[in-house]
Amino acid sequence: MEIYSNNIRELIQELSNLPGLGQKSAQRIAFYIIKQPIEKMENLANVIKKACKEVKYCKECCTITDDELCPICKSSKRDHTQIMIVENERDLASYEKAGEYEGVYHVLHGAISPLLSIGPDELKIKELLLRIRNEEINEIILATNSSIEGEATAAYLCKLLKPLGIKITRIASGVPVGGDIENIDAITLQRALKMRITI
Ligand code: ZN
């Protein structure tokens, strides 16, 4: 016998599809939602809709932003000749929070993974090449994760970019093997960046 009626079941199902939410958390949030005043939840629904509709990729670094350019790409205080390549926006946020880095970023939106059928074409690599062609770049820092996928992506990018004659570095030890950048503390990230090696 089904415990919940259709509407509640559907809500729990949708919520449990979100990353990090299991069935139990989805149930808890679903019951919280249906007990709230309707205006409050309409407002939440509108905020979600607006964010999904209006947020776009920065035309320089491909991170998500409200404008054509993100605040980092817009800033004249950043070194635009140094590009750090990260897998996703969360890694970018981790490096920003660590606070040492003064260059700009490029967000790939994933990593090469034959298992998940993610190849170079699924990542923002075309955009990176275009950017390198149009701008003066002194250094590219490969800051993908130290997972198998992150290493494969770094190796691919190194092979692709090396012939262009740009200095390419890889973030160094300190980032544990298989460790996700977003879960690493600021001091370890600062050290990994400082100790990066030229490849
Ligand atoms: Zn940007």
What report would you give on this structure?
It is built from eight helices and seven strands; from the N terminus they run αααββαβαβαβαβαβ. It has helices at 6-16, 23-34, 38-54, 71-74, 89-98, 125-134, 148-161, 186-194, and strands at residues 56-57, 64-65, 79-86, 103-107, 139-142, 167-170, 197-198. The structure holds zinc ion.
Short description:
The chain has 199 residues and is of the alpha/beta class. 44% of the residues lie in helices and 14% in strands. The chain has helices at 6-16, 23-34, 38-54, 71-74, 89-98, 125-134, 148-161, 186-194, and strands spanning 56-57, 64-65, 79-86, 103-107, 139-142, 167-170, 197-198.
Low-confidence stretches: none
Q: Please give the number of β-strands.
A: 7
Q: Output the number of helix runs.
A: 8
Q: What class do helices, strands and sheet pairing give?
A: alpha/beta
* Fraction of residues in β-strands: 5-15%
Strand count, sense and barrel status of the largest sheet are: 5 strands, mixed
Bound ligands, named by name, code or SMILES = zinc ion
**Percentage of helical residues?**
40-55%
**General form:** elongated
Order of secondary-structure elements? HHHEEHEHEHEHEHE
CA radius of gyration: 20 Å
Provide the spatial order of strands within the biggest beta sheet: 4-3-5-6-7
N/C terminus separation = 61 Å
